[in-house]
Every structure is written in C-alpha cells, then in structure tokens.
Amino acid sequence: MSGELRRDRGAATTRPIGQQVILITGATDGLGRAVARDLADQGATLLLHGRSDERCRRTIAAIEAESGNAKLTYYRADFESLSEVRDLAARVAAEHERLDVLVNNAALGIDPARRVTVDGHEATFQVDYLAPYMLSYLLEPVLIASAPSRIVNIASAGQAPITFEDIMLERSYDGMQAYCQAKLADVMLTIDHAAELSGTGVTVNCLHPALNMPTKIVTHMFTPQSTIADGVRATVRLITDPALERVSGRYFDRTQEARARPEAYDERARARLRAIAERLTGVSAGARGPHLTEPATAQ
User: Fold this and answer.
1) What is the second-level CATH architecture of the domain 15-290?
2) 179 annotated active-site
3) What are the tens digits of pLDDT across the range 170-180?
C-alpha cells in the first residue's frame, strides 16, 4: 500500500457547511469545544461526543446560546472502553443517514503514571489511537454513502517511533513515549485509511493544530505558546476549505503541509501497526467496510 501523498479523484462537490453533519469527539472542552463553537456559528449540524452526560449537556446549552444554532446533539462514550466506542459508532450510523465529517479529536495527554483500560490496554494507546482507528472504520460505510466527506485526525508534531516490542509499555513506561507513539500511530492510520478510501470521495487528513495550546492536557506540563483560536483555524480549514476537497493522505503542521516522522511512510511499520489494531479492536480494515471479529483482551 503506497504512503505517497495524492489527490482523491472524487468528482462531487462538498455541501455547504450549513447542510453538513459533523461528528466531533472530545467536544466538551479545549480544541474540540472551540471547533464545535466555530462550526455551530456556520450553521452545521453537530454531533458532539464526551465522556460525561452532564458536561455534554452543559456544552450543548452553552454553544446553542452563544451561536443560536439548535442543530446540536450529543453522544456519551468513554474511549477507555472499546465496547463504548463500538456502541457510539452504531448509534451514530443508526440515527443519521449522512455523516459529512468525522473529527477524531478526543485524546489523553502525557500521563505520568501508566494506566490500563477495562480492555487491558495502556490507556493512552487505546484512547489516542485504537479508539479513532475503530471509530473511523466502523463509520466508513456511512461516510462513503455521504461522499464527498472527510475524516480529520488530530495528531501532533510530538511523534516518537512505536515501541513494537513493548507497545503497551509494560516493561518501561514513559508518559511522553506513550503520547508521542500514539500520535505517530494516528499519522500512520491517516496514510493507510486515505489509500484504502481512494476513489470513494472520502478524504482522510491529519494535523498538528498548534504548538502547546492552553488546554488541560498541556497546561499541567508546558507553557502555552499558541492560542486555541490558532488550533481552531487550522482544524476548521481541513474540515471546510473547498481547496482541500480532494486532498487526502496528508499531514499538516498547522496550515502547512509537512512531513511526519519517517516511520509514518514505512509500509512494513504501518502493516505491523494495523495488524495490532485489528487484533485488539476486532475491526479489520480495508474492504470498503469493517469486518468484525472478537477483539483480544490484552496485547
């Protein structure tokens, strides 16, 4: 499978933003909430994901009051449970005939202590990579049916080679490694999924939205060096810019196309990662729709 950058050859024209249905994960604070507010101002129908019913309800009430857009609904799911990711995808597909954009934004930051999910996986790897992998493939049929449509993966310039021999970091845990290898995995997912969806009218791109925005996953460790508005501009561009309608398989550093770490373009590394994701999630990739099996409960 080629990792080369290219343009998708779909011929249809993207709908006006006010006619689009957009799912944003991790939408109750930080970048996700700010992106949701921007798109609400533009009239989009928004499906907002969060881990807490109360926070989801508060977010929707605030955005509706601020924007005057009542086309907002929420879906609660904890990405530390893969069964809840699967259920989220099923609910969205059952309740919406169309999905124009999936924004995979939900993520854990740099956790100083290793945590394990209910599925037996290191938490950062599951939330930051396995969950968007799973959601993207499970929602692939509705995205293809809605084409032209887009998947936007929030990655990071903070990338590290994947520790394949200890991918769950059981022998030697480091929070920075956990975060940075998961973000490289998101770039690898982007390249693979874009290639698989070539010709369907569905594009897949990822980006580093801004440097150290003042979000909760940053401020406890770093001094902010950009604003959330900077990240919103870069992210919304990938969601709405007509010039990117047929652009797929790209990594952007803010608004500029960039190169990720070399490992992202290594077909063997991507195949190795994909095999792990398929085994751990029970969702197989690359056949114009997911094939489901029983997921493994641990590495």
Assistant:
1) 3-Layer(aba) Sandwich (3.40)
2) yes
3) 999 999 999 99
